[in-house]
TrEMBL record:
Residues 178-202 are annotated as: Disordered. InterPro entries: SND3_fun. It holds the Pfam family Pho88. This is Inorganic phosphate transporter. The chain crosses the membrane at residues 35-60. GO terms for cellular component: endoplasmic reticulum; mitochondrion. Keywords: Membrane, Transmembrane, Transmembrane helix. The keyword Ubl conjugation does not apply. Residues 189-202 have a biased composition (Basic residues).
Length: 202
């Protein structure tokens, strides 16, 4: 029997990994056991802290970037919001803004997961965050270019657009994962015919 290669493991869809983690946590983790709870909390805290420290390092690296090249971006209104006007900024400033936005998303996710856990002792957000936080950050353009050394061209060419549709589908997948794990019902995939019929009805 051949063991799965690293490439095979990398090709596993993240939604399957998160589903597996949630199912394992429901099987192995006893919510009444404080040791189990603190292990999950500790792993979650370490994963989020590692993401923040990584982005802080990239932010400082971008601030010291002497590249005089300019990037045309939409006006930054703060808190991840963009205006209609465009402006020219240096590569370093562009990367700083991206690092800040990524940190804001991590802090927001941390706040939501912590609230759900404290309010209702909900564990799945912490379990999912242990994997989804580092995995999501690892695949962001800023990490791929500044940390992993990939060339900033093609899909990685600046400015790095916010993948709204990808994020929406990812959140939908995670929501389906949590619902499936809690209810025990399998996820139902929407067929192309259903999507087409919905568009026609509109």
């Amino acid at each position: 029997m051949k063991l799965p290669t690293l490439e095979t493991l990398r090709n596993i869809p993240p939604v399957f990994v998160t589903l597996g983690l949630v199912v394992l946590s429901k099987t192995l983790v006893d919510p009444e056991n404080m040791l189990h709870l603190w292990i999950i909390r500790g792993l979650y805290a370490l994963s989020q802290l590692s993401c923040v420290l990584t982005l802080l390092y990239l932010y400082l690296q971008a601030r010291n970037n002497p590249d005089p090249a300019l990037v045309v971006v939409k006006e930054d209104l703060g808190f991840g919001m963009e205006g209609e006007k465009t402006e020219k900024i240096t590569v370093g400033l562009h990367d700083q803004r991206v690092a800040q936005k990524e940190m804001q998303k991590i802090v927001l996710g941390l706040a939501v997961a912590t609230f759900l856990h404290i309010k209702w002792e909900f564990l799945p957000p912490l379990v999912i965050g242990v994997f989804s936080g580092p995995h999501g950050l690892y695949n962001t353009p800023i990490v791929r270019v500044l940390l992993r050394g990939e060339r900033a061209w093609g899909k990685l060419q600046r400015p790095w657009a916010e993948p709204v549709s990808a994020m929406a589908s990812q959140w939908e997948s995670w929501n389906d994962t949590i619902t499936s794990a809690l209810t025990g019902e399998p996820q139902q995939k929407k067929s192309k015919k259903d999507k087409t019929s919905k568009r026609k009805n509109k």
